[in-house]
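quick one, 343 residues, struct below
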Amino acid sequence: MFRFEDPIYLWLLLLLPIMAAVRFIVWRQKISKIRKFGDPELLKRMMPDVSKYRPTVKFWLMMGALAMIILLIARPQMGTKISNEKRNGIETIICLDISNSMLAEDVVPSRLSKSKMMVENLINRFTNDKIGLIVFAGDAFVQLPITSDYVSAKMFLSQIDPSLIASQGTDIARAIDLASASFTKQDKIGRAIILITDGEDHEGGAEEAAAAARKKGINVFILGVGDTKGAPIPTEGGGYMKDNSGQEVMTALNEEMCQKVAKAGSGTYIHVTNTSDAEEKLNSEITKLQTGETESVVYSEYDEQFQAFGIIVVLLLIIEVCVMESKNPVTKNIRLFKKKESK
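---
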């Protein structure tokens, strides 16, 4: 597969026909002026060293070199390999709570920021596993379908913000149900849902959803983020969120609910106090899951091809310099095609 890294530069190629048109107009004007001096055949005999074709050849050599330079700066690339790679690992879908309560700063720098850093660290630990990403609040949606592309996972993770979901609240059951339906259909492979939340479930049904996931062979792990004592929710204006009566809204980690959901999903609840310890505990639990061969991953590697265009540019410029506008005194008498004289 051939492609250009910066195709915007290809628009510069439009300059070439414009330059050719300008040269043609100038050439016609030049011929018109020469004819005013006298008969073209007579003028030709008076200027035996003037070449009719060499200036045109030099022009098109320069145009070719310019075209190659434009293609060169567009960074041409070619797919050098399409590989089918099989991986042995598990499938993991991370459900990240992005409700407003996750903005609380009872952990540094905030519940959501700490959760995102922890997810990135988890991704760094994965090697042969597939990962998906779901965000939820009052609703849930797939931020990243299950994949083995960890670079894309980190890119999508960096874009997560509570503003992604207009419907606020915390619907853990919806997140678990969506995650359960987002795994591949492969057999004999371990599957895990890692749900990161402060446990403020406003909709209910989380335990039932976790139990349904367990029946499908999916383990549900809960990472609880926040303080059980509670904290206010900061707002963009610099204050704190208030309820209808004007009182500050306090949000606290609901450990009891998190423990029940993890138990229903045959998983483990881990309170995130020390990030490293929490990651170690989670990694220890995940490694117990059965691993299997995931589906083939097809990917392309691109190789830079600008060197070839650079060589062509150099060759065209060398030829252009070597071609003189006037006839070469050594070769001017050589005629490949002689005119047949009329009797």
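Residues 210 and 265 are 4 Å apart (CA to CA).
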